[in-house]
TrEMBL record:
<dbReference type="InterPro" id="IPR024080">
    <property type="entry name" value="Neurolysin/TOP_N"/>
</dbReference>
<dbReference type="GO" id="GO:0006508">
    <property type="term" value="P:proteolysis"/>
</dbReference>
<keyword id="KW-0378">Hydrolase</keyword>
<keyword id="KW-0482">Metalloprotease</keyword>
<dbReference type="InterPro" id="IPR001567">
    <property type="entry name" value="Pept_M3A_M3B_dom"/>
</dbReference>
<comment type="similarity">
    <text>Belongs to the peptidase M3 family.</text>
</comment>
<feature type="signal peptide">
    <location>
        <begin position="1"/>
        <end position="19"/>
    </location>
</feature>
<keyword id="KW-0732">Signal</keyword>
<dbReference type="InterPro" id="IPR024079">
    <property type="entry name" value="MetalloPept_cat_dom_sf"/>
</dbReference>
<keyword id="KW-0479">Metal-binding</keyword>
<dbReference type="Pfam" id="PF01432">
    <property type="entry name" value="Peptidase_M3"/>
</dbReference>
<dbReference type="InterPro" id="IPR024077">
    <property type="entry name" value="Neurolysin/TOP_dom2"/>
</dbReference>
<keyword id="KW-0645">Protease</keyword>
<feature type="domain" description="Peptidase M3A/M3B catalytic">
    <location>
        <begin position="251"/>
        <end position="698"/>
    </location>
</feature>
<dbReference type="GO" id="GO:0004180">
    <property type="term" value="F:carboxypeptidase activity"/>
</dbReference>
<dbReference type="GO" id="GO:0046872">
    <property type="term" value="F:metal ion binding"/>
</dbReference>
<dbReference type="InterPro" id="IPR045090">
    <property type="entry name" value="Pept_M3A_M3B"/>
</dbReference>
Amino acid sequence: MKKLITIFIMSTTIFAANAQTNADNPLLKKWEGPYGGVPAFDAYKVSDFKPAIEFAIQEKLSEIDAIANNSKTPTFDNTIAALELSGKTISKIFTVYGIYRSNLSSPEFNKIDTEMSPKLSAFNDKINQNRKLFARIETLYNAKESKKLTSEQQRLIWLYYTRLVREGAKLDDATKSKVSTINQELASLFTKFSQNLLAEEHNQYVALTTEADFAGLPNEVKNAAIAEAKTRKLDVLGCVANTRSSIEPFLTFSTRRDLREKAFDIFVKRGDNGNANDNNATLVKILQLRQEKAKLLGFPTFAHWNLSNKMAKDPQKTLDLMESVWEPAVAKVKEDVAEMQKIVDAEGGKFKIEPWDYRYYAEKVRKAKYDLDQNEVKQYLQLEKLREGMFWVAGELFDLNFKQITNVPVYHPDVRVWEVSNKVTGKLVGLWYFDPYARAGKRSGAWMNSYREQQKLDGDVLTIVSNNCNFIKGADNEPILISWEDASTLFHEFGHALHGLCSNVTYPTLAGTAVARDYVEFPSQLLEHWLATPEVLNKFALHYKTNEPLPKTLVERIERAGNFGEGFATVETISSSLIDMKLHLTTETIDPHKFEKETLDKLHMPSEIVMRHRIPQFGHIFSSDGYAAGYYSYLWADAINADAYEAFTEGKGPYDKEIAKRLYETVFSVGNTIDQEKAYENFRGRAPKSDALMRARNFPIKK
């Protein structure tokens, strides 16, 4: 370790003078306090970001140069391990920067984000395109001596080498320069797309001006609309915000068809209004640049480039999977719509089911067919009780214990923190931050973040993870009641958090959720199953007034209706996945409206449903490269998840200790230390079978 430290002496000296001028910038200070240090959220200011980032970029580049220019023969320690130890300052700044971008966006921050995005892209390219650095890594990759290293060390060398090759490390200088220019332009466009989408979500709403406008809404939805209007300081009784967490409950319960149509209209037209926040020109440019980049990197399309390091590898494999599920899903939707239309006709409605009617009449069918009212179920789904249920599941499966703490700073009063430990050994595992509520400046949806990766290279470093959601607070001092779908999302995101918390590897680059994109959703989707287990429902699905558990008869009705709506959910999601893949397989310049319509027409998209993410608002694929040509990952991972859960049902049930232990040892703890296909085979004893997915969705299995 001493040898590694000496590598950075020169770079540290270079920045001594600059460090003096940045001494008061809290973003450049080490994380102090308990748990190996925590972010000083109470000290940061938006104005700190630019000087901190600029300093940390130069510091990291100096460290990289010291590694690349080392005159000694490349070894794992002086090259790969040194890389793992470099950039501590910039990593910590990126963590806080990402939190502000997703949770605390403001005009002041957006201005800095717009300026810094291309600079950060150029910074990454300077590392990815460093010839001397790549030469050292390539030497290790080809060296026979490397085969004597541990399997984790060999995996890390392989990962560094293949990532750099994929990013163009072997290109000539002129082509590298072109790729870098494209990356910088893309970074600016990603930021613009995200900021436009956030502006549409926060600037638009449906005003509720009379008591009649609240017709059909459950109390908690009504109270949330009233609270939203007060927060916005509007002179109306209530308003429906233009976010999924507000729009979907309104579409489900409002009896006002005219207002449902208004709410639906503003939601599906986000980024597509021909105004200053219109995203169409931006996304077309993104697609053009991606295709140009893929060609420079030697791939026929961006989809082929992006899948080159995924489990699927070949875009056609993803299309085959999606299309195999598409037809039975559409058939199920047609059956459900026919039942909805019968209700409309019986009520004397002179209209055909439209997309703004679907959720409303689906609830009526659910009630008629299964005697199941979502409002009835919702009375038992208290956010805080379900959070306790998640903790209990984590304890049963992975021996984790959660204890709330108040001795660390948070970035917003809504955020709470829990200390996580092993309940058997008492050993600390990490911290879990929870930010559950919607607010201005916070992007919609739900997600998991890693603030610090678990590792053992630089001491026994504790991981720090977070879950962020957009639940509506409603009235003061009232429990937050959530839908069954939202409860599933809560467990899903917690599954990501557990993937991070259970990590037990040596090197931070391989830790936790740092796996292939089409595998990372597997552990999170798997955890959703535990919400519906009797143990969770009996202990934690408690009525918000009586504290009584879900009645057995209601549990049975939930189970009978378990696959209801599966057709809708599948069509809504896979239509977006197919559009995403086809967008990134085309080499032509597209017209977004024409492409969307023609592609969906060829798929025979049911007219009663729209894509979960229309093209101009598809943040997953246009806010970064993360899920671009990768939205199929949810279905791909769900096929693995369905197969994996059958290991429990074939065993002693969801809390089978032996299978849970194997799940921890082969999936949740290993990160990217092993090829994911092999990791799954180590868990299941074989490759996953897609038949399990069809069974889980109650779709016919083709022989």
